[in-house]
Amino acid sequence: MKIQIPFVSVCLIALPFQAGADTFILNDGSKIEGSILSENETSYVLEARITKSIKDERVVAKSDVAKIQREKPDLIAFEPIAALIPIPDSLTAEQYAGRIRMIEKFLSEHRGSSKTKEARKILATHKAEANEILAGAIKLNGKIVPPAEYRANAYEIDARIEETKIRELIKNARYLEALRTFSEFDRDFRNTEARSAVLPLINQVMNTHLTEVGQLLATYDARAKERASGLERMSPADRRSTEIAIAEEKTALESRLKAEKDAKIGWVTPHPFYKPSLDDTVNFGKQEIGRLSISTSAPVVDGGKTFRDALQKIQSGADKAAATAAISAAKSAMVAPKYIAILEAAAANR
């Protein structure tokens, strides 16, 4: 639920202080975090920080202030730098580069800061990991997987990375995105332990999503009738403008649904007042639940092991027939085309 904060416009004669939040310690021992918007001989007008995102305006008598602790700009600037640690998994070289530039900018702009030593340590950690990523390594579960180990286990490791992404999306309540990501994951990593591990969770998300959309579908006619009644109660001018807005929204929803279906997106975006999107969601969802219900708790074959064994056999100098058989085994294990291409390239370059 979103909380609407009313906007208040305040005109001030002078705004001499707009720095970061300071701490005002009052005579009674209480504290106010905020910045000075203006002041006169007897009082301060403060923009008080209630939370990181909510602020309020307060007038405080100077006689009530025992002490002002000035907040240093470098400490404010260091907060996003400190948040870069721990470094998450699966960052690209470009993402490392962006984070490194951010740290270097802090060090350049805040020379002599009390946080310089800590920032340099964070920078060194980023550069060390970035060099390994550039060399072909990957980070998984907080640890760097060396290039050779990653290449040998690329199919299994990539499956685990995608599984982690799906779990993170679900954790952050991004359910529709999680379902779409799983659809691609399920196509590429069908016979993997990662797929088996995430399957119960994704089934739960599917059922919850379908229940919610099903409720919208069941109440659609009643809600449409209620909206029509609301339009009838409006003045002619208001009704006309509202009808235009509804028509424009319907056109946009039709366009979005068509674009998603043209892109072969199974889990389309449902909208409470666009019935085709609700129907499509329920129909596709039932098909998916039915399809996944016949999946076993463990993969029919271990795709990760099949890929690893095939690559090892090819790289160990197997003859053409053995290499072809190894690639065929990987295809039978439904290893995704991207990884079959790796095996075929390895066979061609022997």
Spatial strand arrangement across the major sheet: 4-3-2-1-5
Domains, number: 4
Sheet with most strands: 5 strands, antiparallel
**What's the N-to-C terminus distance?**
59 Å
Indicate the radius of gyration in whole angstroms.
29 Å
Q: How many H/I helices? A: 13
- What order do the SSEs take from the amino end to the carboxyl end, as H and E? EEEEEHHHEEHHHHHHHHHH
Mean pLDDT: 90
Strand residue percentage: 5-15%
Low-confidence stretches: 1-19
Features of the shown structure:
11% strand; 13 helices
Can you walk me through this structure?
With 350 residues, the protein is α+β, with helices and mostly antiparallel strands. The chain has 4 domains: 22-71; 74-147, no CATH class; 154-245 and 265-293, no CATH class; 303-348, no CATH class. 59% of the residues lie in helices and 11% in strands. It has a 5-stranded antiparallel β-sheet with strand order 4-3-2-1-5, with no helix packed on it. A two-stranded antiparallel ribbon has the order 6-7. Helix 11 (303-315) packs antiparallel against helix 12 (320-332), helix 11 (303-315) packs parallel to helix 13 (337-348) and helix 12 runs antiparallel to helix 13. The N and C termini lie far apart (59 Å). The relative contact order is 0.07.
